[in-house]
Amino acid sequence: MQGQPKSDEWGLFPDDRAADGPPAIAVRGVSFQWSSDRPVLKDCSLAVPPGEFWMLLGTNGSGKSTLMQLLAGLRQPATGEVLLRRPVGFVFQNPDRQLVMPTVGSDVAFGLAEENLSEIETRDRIRSALAELNVLELERRPIYALSGGQKQRVAIAGAIATRCEVLLLDEPTALLDPDSQLDLVRCVRQLVDDRGIAALWVTHRLDELDYCDGAFLLENGRVVASGKPAAMRDRLLASQSAL
Ligand SMILES: Nc1ncnc2c1ncn2[C@@H]1O[C@H](COP(=O)(O)OP(=O)(O)O)[C@@H](O)[C@H]1O
Ligand SMILES: [Mg+2]
C-alpha cells in the first residue's frame, strides 16, 4: 500500500527523537520476495524526517535496490506499508538508463509533460532546475556529450523540476570518479538544505557518509541499525562487515 504519511504513530524516528511531524519517507513492516525461494525484505522498517538526508548501506544483494523500487512504487510489498511525500524523484545508478531524450533541456522537459504547464512555465522550471544544479550552460547539449557527473546532475535536475518532496538515489555515484562522486553528494546535501526536501541515498562508500544526517544498515532483509553517520561508520569499521 502506498500513500501519504498521516502521523508519526509508528515511533520509527531514528535516535528515538521526537518528530515535528510525519516522516517524509516511511517504510513499516515491509516484506518482499522476487521468487518463492527466499524473501529479500522481511519486516523492514525505516523513516526519514522531512528536510533530512539519509543513506542506506548494506552488502551487495542485501535488498537496497529492491527497497528503492518499492519506495518508487515500481513494485508492491507483499506485506507492510510504504508512505512517501509526493512528488517523488528517482535517480538511478546508471544515468544512461534514465536520460531518454536527445538533449539536456528536452530530457528535463520530458519529466514535466504530464503537468500540462504553459510553455513559459515549462521553460522556467527547466532553467531554474538546471541552474540550481549548476548545469544551465548544458541546456542545449546532447546527452551523449556529457560526463557521468553531469548526467547525474541532469537526472537530479529532472526530479527537482517536478518540485519533488522526496529524492531517492540508488548508488548514484557508483559509476563516477572520486571527484565527481564527492561533488554529487555535496550537491544533494545543498539541495536538501535549500529546499527542505528529504533524500535517501544508497551507497557503499564510507566517505559519502560525512554529508548525511544519518544512515540505515540493511542486513538480512531488515534495518538492523540506524543513526548518526560517525556512529554508523565506527560500527561498520569495527565489525569489518557489510561493505
Ligand atoms: N528483478 C529481479 N528479479 C529477481 N531477483 C532479483 C531482482 N532484483 C534483485 N533480485 C534479487 O534480490 C536480492 C537483492 O538484490 P538487490 O535489491 O539488487 O540488492 P542490492 O541493491 O542491495 O545489491 C538479490 O538476491 C537479487 O539477486
Ligand atoms: Mg543495488
Supply database-style keywords.
243 residues, alpha/beta, Rossmann fold, 2 domains, six-stranded mixed beta sheet, 6 helices, 10 strands, globular, binds adenosine-5'-diphosphate, binds magnesium ion
CATH H-level superfamily title of the largest domain = P-loop containing nucleotide triphosphate hydrolases
Ions and ligands: adenosine-5'-diphosphate, magnesium ion
- The strand count comes to 10
How many helices does DSSP assign? 6
* Number of self-contained structural domains: 2
Please give the CATH class of the largest domain: Alpha Beta
What's the CATH architecture name of the largest domain? 3-Layer(aba) Sandwich
Strand order of the largest sheet: 6-7-8-4-9-10
Q: What is the beta-strand fraction? A: 15-25%
Task: Please trace the helix and strand order, writing H or E for each element.
Answer: EEEEHEEHHHEHEEEH
Assign an overall shape: globular
What is the CATH T-level topology of the largest domain? Rossmann fold
Structural class: alpha/beta
- Give the proportion of residues in helices: 25-40%
If you average the pLDDT, what whole number results?
Answer: 91
Provide the gyration radius in Å.
18 Å
Task: Give an overview of the whole structure.
The chain has helices spanning 64-71, 104-110, 119-132, 148-161, 178-195, 229-239; strands at 2-3, 25-32, 41-48, 53-57, 79-84, 88-91, 166-170, 198-202, 214-219, 222-227. With 243 residues, it is of the alpha/beta class. The chain has 2 domains: 2-86 and 165-241, P-loop containing nucleotide triphosphate hydrolases (Rossmann fold); 96-163, no CATH class. The strands form 2 sheets. A 6-stranded mixed beta sheet has the order 6-7-8-4-9-10, sandwiched between helices. It has a 4-stranded mixed beta sheet with strand order 1-5-2-3, with helices on one face. Helix 5 (178-195) links the parallel strand 7 and strand 8. Helix 2 packs parallel to helix 4 (148-161) and helix 4 runs parallel beside helix 5 (178-195). The chain binds adenosine-5'-diphosphate and magnesium ion. The site of magnesium ion (MG) has 3 residues, from helix 1. Adenosine-5'-diphosphate binds at residues 34, 40, 58, 60-66.
